[in-house]
Every structure is written in C-alpha cells, then in structure tokens.
Specification:
This protein has 4 helices and 16 strands. It is of the alpha+beta class.
Length: about 250
C-alpha cells in the first residue's frame, strides 16, 4: 500500500508522444524526501531539542531520494529553505551543496542547528521544499501511509528548541522533586552529568539518584547561606519565578 502510487507511476509514465510504449525506469528522474523513523514510518517533520546535549550545534540530515537510475555526473537539486522565525547564519547553517552526487541515489542534505539563548523561550522552524528543474521532476506530492493518512514527500519541516515539553524519561520525582528545566540544568552543571543520561528510563541508578538528591540539597543550602551573608551566590539555585530555593524532594 505504501508504495502503491510510486509503483503506479513507474507503470504509466510514457515515452515522448508514443503512448504505446511505456517508459523504462532509467527515463524517470524524480526526487522526494525520504525521512523515516526507526520503525520505518515516513515522516515530513522532526522536532529537535538541545536539552540532552552539551553541544552548541546539532546536525540534522535530511534525506533526498532519487526515483530512477543514478547518473555518472552530479546533478543540481532545487531545494528552497525558508524560516519564518529563524535567521541563516545565526540560528542555522546550510553547508551541503544541493546536488545529487554522481553514481548516487540519495543525498543527505545537512542542516546545522545553532544553540542560542532564544531557544529557551520559543521554538524555531525551518521549512525545506523541493522544486522541479531541468534534471529532476517531482513525481508525487505525497505518499499514502498504512491507515490512509498521507505524508508530504516534497516538503520537510525542522522544529527545534532548547527546552522541555515533558519531563525526561529518566527523571525520578522521588529524588528530584517536581521536574523543571532549571533543576535539570543546575544538576548537570553542578554535578557535571551528561544531559543524555536523563533521557533513558533507569539509566541513572537509585543509588546515583540518592547521591544527586543529597548533593543538590546541600548545594542549595550553601547558596542560601551565601545569599544571607551578602556574598556572591548562584542565582540558579533559586526559582526564577517565586525566588524560593529549589527543592529536590516532593515534600
């Protein structure tokens, strides 16, 4: 079902004006976005967050697939990138040459996302769209998925931010208290922990969580003492909204 329309296309493309002769596969030169999840489901967008990495850049590969036979020479691809609230060079960088390499059937078009302070407040969006040119046609605008839903194969969207929408899978409220991004970032900074460890259930052991709770509670108490003594203190140890010290317990 998934490839029904592409197969149908191959069967009905005609050569020139001679409607009696079906075109061979080598006469089709089409391109489309072919980006899939781990379970092989085709998608037309991806949501990226910087919260699980210490890097200031993330590279997103966008797969452009050939429908037809490869060529002995490189061929340019007309891909247009628009971003309603992101600026090229500031929020993202495009380094990949938009052309299908010689003897290749796909191109990994790389979009480099850049971490900026604004990503903690709102998401940025990048839209990519394929257009026909002298080298490639656009056989179909979408693909039918199992269940009847359609997915665009000519448009692809990247949404990225530096914030959480839900607590990470590995967060344990019994030891960390109610989740907040401020707590998460403070733990990673003070205890020099890898943010990615929190994205997997049970990756952090109970013993390690007990250590985190003890160390962070002690750290906050130290900052309270410094603040009361009029010394320089870590403002991130206090809730940015209420001004109250962060608590690493549900009580």
């Amino acid at each position: 079902m998934r490839w029904y329309y592409l197969v149908a296309l191959l069967g009905f493309v005609l050569v020139g004006c001679d409607k009696r002769e079906p075109a061979g596969f080598e006469e089709i030169n089409g391109i489309y976005f072919n980006n899939r999840l781990a379970n092989n489901v085709l998608v037309d967008s991806t949501n990226i967050t910087f919260v699980y990495t210490n890097s200031d850049e993330l590279v997103v590969p966008v797969v452009i697939q050939l429908l037809g036979r490869s060529s002995g020479s490189a061929r340019p691809i007309d891909i247009r990138v628009t971003a309603p609230n992101a600026e090229e060079g500031v929020d993202y960088v495009l380094k990949t040459t938009p052309e299908l390499p010689a003897d290749s059937t796909l191109l990994n078009y790389l979009v480099t996302l850049k971490r900026t302070p604004k990503l903690k407040e709102e998401s940025r969006v990048i839209n990519l769209e394929l257009y026909a040119n002298d080298y490639f046609s656009l056989p179909l605008p979408w693909q039918v998925q199992i269940g009847g839903d359609t997915t665009s194969i000519l448009r692809y969207r990247i949404i990225f931010s530096d914030r959480f929408t839900v607590a990470p899978k590995g967060w344990e409220s019994d030891y960390g208290g109610e989740f907040s991004q401020q707590k998460f970032e403070l733990i990673c900074r003070v205890l020099k922990m890898d943010p990615a460890d929190f994205n997997t259930k049970n990756k952090i052991s109970w013993a390690k969580w007990s250590f985190i709770q003890l160390e962070m509670t002690t750290y906050v108490k130290q900052q309270i003492a410094k603040k009361n003594a009029g010394e320089e203190y870590d403002k991130e140890a206090f809730d940015k909204i209420t001004g109250e010290p962060l608590k690493f317990t549900l009580k």
